[in-house]
Amino acid sequence: xxxxxxxxxxxxxxxxxxxxxTCSFPSSNFxxxxxxxxxxxxxxxxxFVMTLNGDEKKKGRISxxxxxxxxxxxxxxxxxxPEDSATYLCAPNRDDKIIFGKGTRLHxxx
Amino acid sequence: xxxxxQDPRHKITKRGQNVTFRCDPISEHNRLYWYRQTxxxxxxxxxxxxxxxxxEKSRLLSDRFSAERPKGSFSTLEIQRTEQGDSAMYLxxxxxxxxxxxxxxxxxxxxxxxxxx
Lengths: 110, 117
What we know:
Low-confidence stretches of chain B: none
Largest sheet of chain B: 7 strands, mixed
Order of helices and strands of chain A: EEEEEEEEEEE
Largest sheet of chain A: 6 strands, mixed
Oligomer: heterodimer
Number of strands of chain A: 11
Structural class of chain B: mainly beta
Strand content of chain B: over 45%
Radius of gyration of chain B: 14 Å
Helix content of chain B: under 10%
Number of helices of chain B: 0
Order of helices and strands of chain B: EEEEEEEEEEE
Mean pLDDT of chain B: 93
């Protein structure tokens, strides 16, 4: 069983502040690390797929880093906006499926 | 590109009844995945298909659950003799190359919310 840990479980952030959260996963037999954003009443949407150790990806105000040797990834959001309120899911894949963590629920306070 | 669609969006049923959900993946996507999400948990893998072939089914999945993809296009997930513990969001996802191809991601539907009374 692939054990994926995300922290914190829930987070309240003031609009305009920056924030980050963590995903940890077993580093053995690693293939890729996915980040998804899931807004209420919508479909989960892929943010990043990362494969290389030390990789960093960016999409607007959101960025992510990956350390495959120690088995962790960070997701950063700069200058939080109300539309960033969502659950952020981390999912490493081995073989041909991805295994999700429980997610970090982010609430942006006006 | 109409995206992944799932039907119905919501289903309320009584314990012991059978239910069936449908998923239409993005056209020409070969891979189709089913996940289940319960409150406070991340999506849990159930099963996946390469065209019409079911390649893997979670060992944690009860025999009451069955999935098909008869023509390699849409898929159905059936739950027989539903139990209250089956109440969850059932998500379908698809992609074209599988997840071992570089930078491949999943495209998800909006899910079917099942409530078993």
